[in-house]
Write a structure and sequence with these properties.
By secondary structure, the protein is mostly helical. 67% of the residues lie in helices and 0% in strands. The longest helix is centred in the N-terminal third of the chain and has 23 residues, at 30-52. It is elongated, with a radius of gyration of 19 Å.
């Protein structure tokens, strides 16, 4: 009896391995789905939490995404990275939940510095004495979709191309929305903070 070796895949760094894991999931492999979970569940959970600002809801989204993967992966065309596809599923699920509840997310305090720097530029980083609540109010001026876009670009370091695939928008639109978002937050902070 021939034994198949265990799957050892590094999804983020190897396109060939990504194709193998997709094929295995399509064939019903729980092991492959488990490896996908190991590689991507933290990022999916983080994105869901940043959009929903509720740990329980973010965990629900995480579970819903991974429960739906075996059925939805049949529609995955492989034109983007598997991680990009998972981010898109996550964004869509979170936006659906936000729309249905008409809620607005708040900023997680642990990432305030990153978003302040993104909003007003690193040259001011040392000079700012900001109030995290004030930044939350500034970010609340943005839609949940735009906040998630800003997070994925600045904290997750996704490319404009990846964001274009996730949000199904032209790259120029993504760039314009990010620029406007930074301007909105920067203007809000400038109106409410004293910094040079």
């Amino acid at each position: 009896m021939r034994c198949n070796p265990p799957l050892t895949l590094n999804i983020k760094n190897n396109e060939m391995n990504e194709k193998v894991i997709i094929k295995k999931i399509q064939q019903g492999s729980r092991e492959a789905l488990g490896m996908l979970w190991k590689s991507h569940s933290t990022n999916v959970l983080n994105l869901a939490f940043r959009m929903l600002k509720n740990r329980d809801e973010a965990e629900d989204v995480l579970m819903d995404i991974f429960v739906s993967v075996p059925g939805k992966i049949k529609n995955f065309r492989g034109e983007s990275a598997l991680s990009t596809w998972l981010f898109r599923l996550t964004v869509n699920e979170c936006l659906m939940r936000l729309r249905s509840k008409k809620r607005h997310a708040e900023l997680e305090e642990g990432h305030v510095e990153l978003l302040v720097t993104s909003a007003i530029g690193s040259k001011h980083e040392e000079q700012i004495d900001y109030d995290p609540e004030l930044l939350e109010f500034g970010l609340s001026k943005l839609s949940a979709e735009t906040r998630s876009m800003l997070w994925l670009k600045d904290a997750e370091d996704l490319s404009i191309k990846d964001l274009s695939e996730i949000y199904d928008m032209p790259e120029g639109t993504i760039k314009a929305r990010l620029s406007r978002a930074r301007t909105v937050v920067k203007n809000y902070l400038q109106e409410n903070l004293n910094y040079a």
